[in-house]
Amino acid sequence: MGTPAATDAGTQATGDTPAIGPNGSGGTEATASGRKETSAGQLSPGQAGGPAARVALVGVHGFGAHHLRNLERLQAAGVVDLVAVADPNPPAPGSVPETTHVFPALPDLLAETGGLDLIIVATPIQTHAPLGLAALATAADLYLEKPPVASLADFNRLRDAAAASGRSVQIGFQSLGSHALTAIERLLADGTIGTLQGISATGRWVRDRAYYKRSRWAGKRVIDGVDVVDGVATNPLAHAVATALRIAGARTTADIASLETELYRANQIESDDTSVIRIRTSSGVPITCALTLCATESVEPYVTLQGSAGTAVFHYTEDRLTVEAAAGRTEQVFGRDDLTENLLAHRRSGAALLSPLLDSGAFMLVLEAIRTAPLPAPIDGKYVRWEGAEEAAHAVVVDIEDALERATGRHATFSELGLPWAASAPHAFNLPAS
Fold this sequence. Notes:
The chain is an alpha/beta fold. Helices cover 23% and strands 26% of the residues. It has helices at residues 63-76, 106-112, 128-136, 152-165, 180-189, 238-247, 339-349, 361-372, 400-410; strands at residues 53-58, 80-86, 101-103, 118-121, 141-145, 169-172, 196-206, 222-223, 226-227, 256-265, 274-281, 286-292, 294-307, 310-315, 320-325, 328-333, 377-378, 384-387, 394-397, 427-428. Helix 3 (128-136) runs parallel beside helix 4. The two termini are 33 Å apart.
């Protein structure tokens, strides 16, 4: 879609985002009385007011299919009109409304489709920058899937284009719509877990050989001279990093004081599949993200708040918050605001965006640190076992679960823990001048 890599537009990875449910969210919110609450800013039939927003979707496969289902729900509610889609691989029969025009690429769509209110881009990472810039050259607002782009330079270009156009940009970190984040703000403010001493993100997932063969950009750092940066922290478990940063109050590039990476790979890929990212915010909060795609089994990822008088654990794909403090143990499942609806509410009434482009600045520093770090160190085969057969086989780093827990608990990297396969060392990222 405007770039040589656009032929992969139908294979965007779903990453660590919860499936869109019947209400466009990853869960339901219940109060202590069990009463389900309505998500603030959410739209329902008859609530939209005014004409339906004219929407175009770029990328209809992979995570684009989730957007199709969500748009179908919103169209049934009279909130949107999906007027056009673009993808070099046509949508499956019946997956888009009969009135929706289908194009092979965004330039074709824009040439023949006017009056768009919103363009949603759900395509491979390396296409986000050119497609996002093309969308911002129109009068439409932009919903851009995560990660925003594949380099800090592209982020700055997109930021400048958005500012010049006056258009709004929402980034698809769906976990940032969770109502649990407001509950976390409250417990930090009232001292439920004491003084915040650190935050960690833990991700233990399984990805097999077929995962890395699903597209030509899977597991790549660069393809055809274009940055991709498809590593564990930048795509599959990007929400773990973004959610930890948001809880720490780190939104913009100015909110990061230091950043280190230690990257490894057990698979025969270019990018990292097992890594530690260690961050210190400008307010002094340490954040350690220990992530792998080489676990024994997949476990829902979580962010841990380490306090002087307790802990809070947020399973962000489930919107589930568990708190252990002096008063005992509590667990609650929250609702979440759909980011597409939030962007529409922003257009309609000025509601604050939940995941605006500028608030991805801190995450983009993490991506840039990974992009510019030394190549991921291969893990010696004697510390890797393979489970499953043929394309379903997946690598398991020996004792990786224990390694992740120790890394996050101590805010240490794998090499600092003295793990036998950790032959690398922490790499400090030189923060750009503000």
